[in-house]
Amino acid sequence: MLDAALLGTGGMTPLPTRFLTSLMLRVNGSQLVVDCGEGTQVTMKLLGWGYKNIDVLCFTHFHADHIAGLPGLLHAINTSVRREPLTLVGPPGLKAVAAGLMVIAKELEYEVNIIEIPYRRFGPPESIKLGDHLIGALPLDHRGPCLGYSFEYKRAGLFDVEKARANNVPMAFWSRLQKKGEAIEEMGVVYKPEMVMGPPRRSIKVSYCTDTRPVPNLPEFIKGSDLFVCEGMYGDIEMLPKTASHKHMIFQEAAEIAKEAAVKELWLTHYSPALTQPEQQLPVARGIFPNTVCGRDRMVKVINYED
Amino acid sequence: MLDAALLGTGGMTPLPTRFLTSLMLRVNGSQLVVDCGEGTQVTMKLLGWGYKNIDVLCFTHFHADHIAGLPGLLHAINTSVRREPLTLVGPPGLKAVAAGLMVIAKELEYEVNIIEIPYRRFGPPESIKLGDHLIGALPLDHRGPCLGYSFEYKRAGLFDVEKARANNVPMAFWSRLQKKGEAIEEMGVVYKPEMVMGPPRRSIKVSYCTDTRPVPNLPEFIKGSDLFVCEGMYGDIEMLPKTASHKHMIFQEAAEIAKEAAVKELWLTHYSPALTQPEQQLPVARGIFPNTVCGRDRMVKVINYED
Questions:
Q1: Which one from A55, A65, A226, A297 is the annotated catalytic residue?
Q2: Own/partner pairs for A169-173, CB < 8 Å, 24+ apart?
């Protein structure tokens, strides 16, 4: 089971009525956050999931509306009495940007590790594993290096008694093979987990894409997502030229990508401050991809594994 | 005339119900801001005085709750289409801290000048003039270099006809001497402005003090203030040992300073997040200095010159 919370839905600047776009995932007691603009620690406080279990902070890029909240959040995590290391993930340059911002967050009582993901425009996705978080990162097309993310949570298959018997696996090893997932050697015979387990079951996948123009390999990258969180700066088609010139997308473009990738649900976010009533623009997007939802601050979705 | 607005009243961390402590002054079309924690640009938006005329940003010190909002505010000022230079003022180290934070505010279309004020614990105040803002800066006693500020707005005397006549100043020079404030030489005789002007009238003075323990020369520094904005982390006397150990003050200490300096009005601010009902602690402070007010976010005071 995974909980997803959209911490904010604004783009460019924080508003009294709208926090900046940020996503929090919570799975197996570990929290992961994507982007952290000015005020993200405050909307987190309103959400109430706490700071202590934030293990990973992913950054799409280094525009202030996506990262200015970093030092404040690091302090909030420190005050929550976290002492375990925290990992920051982002495009090349993250180390320098974090070092700059952390000039006012020097006295943390936990370690901050930084992973820079290679970036090549229109290049292939990269993949890293941090705890239970299998993180995919796809180069996007914005003003400077920017990454889209996917987060996948694998689920092992069911124990298959008949398979275990057919493979002559001694019953004494069944539980170890299933739970530890490691091979066992006994009297010169090697018993592997796959000799007792059915095929892996469907994983949970959440993907996140902002700020960018549509890129060719994005639908493939987000395929199979239970939830696709995607920017929509404006809904009105007349805003497309301006939006595209700033390297952003409109609602319809997000919906086209969701449709092509056949995701389960699309949440629009990263609205322009000028877009005060995003729901008014929703029908056109729903005409393309029916399961489109206008993101709202602290909207939460619980995603269960399929049985 | 001067307008003062307390943008926030929180200490340590921004809350959903309370912005971080910051003060904005507006005088003769120029705005000056003291401190700028995470979210200050948002409470400024709620206040509605705009960003474009912010000429000076003063920083007391470099703890995140006083400066983390700098890059976001610089962007907001840029978006307001300001093109005139902006001056940052603060203790030694400001250049390095600003350079760090501005790693995400590199593309501003105005110049940012930085003035570092010398700091020596318990040392004398320094003074600088920026436009109409006569800024005094007093070393405070916090964890690291920290400055208290005073802001004084001088007012010339009235034109004195009898004095001008007694000094034999030709009537043709009266207006120039009054308005330009510069001496005029004519036929070997020098006419000075003070030959036609009465004594300077009472100025407007606002002072601001956080974060610190009481320092000996603070009452003298703030003397004559129409408004004294001062930290009060807690109101309960039982919190004094903890408050003092963190180099902060409680309500009673602020009131004692206001009383000794005989200021006109004291605004308490920089409350601990644990202090949710500061008004409950007000009576003791008022017992010491009756004109004590519990600061509230976006509380505004208009201060007129006395006639």
A1: A65
A2: A169/A195, A169/A196
Query: What is the model's pLDDT at position A171?
Result: 92
Predicted confidence (pLDDT) at residue B216 exceeds the cutoff of 80: yes
CB-CB contact of B11 with B19 (8 Å): no
Domains in chain B: ranges and CATH = 2-156+200-303 (3.60.15.10)
Cis peptide leading into residue A141 (ω within 30°): no
Q: Which residue has 């920290």 as its token pair?
A: B146
CA dist., res. B229 & res. A299, Å (int): 39
What secondary structure letter does DSSP report for A22? Answer: E
Q: Are B90 and B128 in contact (CB under 8 A)?
A: no
AA identity, residue A209:
C
How far does the CA of residue A71 sit from the closest CA of chain B (Å)? 7
B41 neighbourhood in chain A, CB within 8 Å: 13-14, 38
User: Which chain A residue's Cα is nearest to B44?
Assistant: A16
Residue pair A55/A129 in contact (Cβ under 8 Å)? The answer is no
Q: Can A65 be counted among the known catalytic residues?
A: yes
Provide the pLDDT for residue A200: 87
Partners of residue B75 in chain A, C-beta under 8 Å: 13, 64
How many CB atoms are located within 10 Å of the residue A209 CB?
Answer: 28
Give long-range contacts, CB 8 A cutoff, 24+ apart: A187-193. A191/A167
**What tokens were used for B181?**
């404030």
User: How far from the centroid of its chain's Cα atoms is residue B169's Cα?
Assistant: 39
Selected residues 19-78 of chain A with any CB under 8 Å from a CB in chain B? 37-39, 41-42, 45-46, 62-64, 67-69, 71-72, 75-76
CA distance A16 to chain B (A): 6
Q: Distance between CA A193 and CA A174 in Å, rounded?
A: 8
Q: Which residue of B lies nearest to A69 if distances are taken between CA atoms?
A: B38
Indicate whether this complex's ipTM tops 0.85: yes
Q: pTM score > 0.90 for this model?
A: yes
Measure CB to CB from residue B39 to each of A39, A64, A79 and give the nearest one.
A39
Q: Which amino acid makes up residue B300?
A: V
Please say whether the beta carbons of B209 and B230 come within 8 A.
yes
A282, HSE (Cβ side, Cα atoms, 13 Å) = 16
Separation in Å, CA A246 to CA A141, A249, B26, B80: 11, 9, 35, 18
Alpha carbon of B40: minimum distance to chain A alpha carbons (Å) = 10
Nearest CA in chain B to A66: B104
Contact between residue A305 and residue A155 where contact means Cβ atoms under 8 Å apart = yes
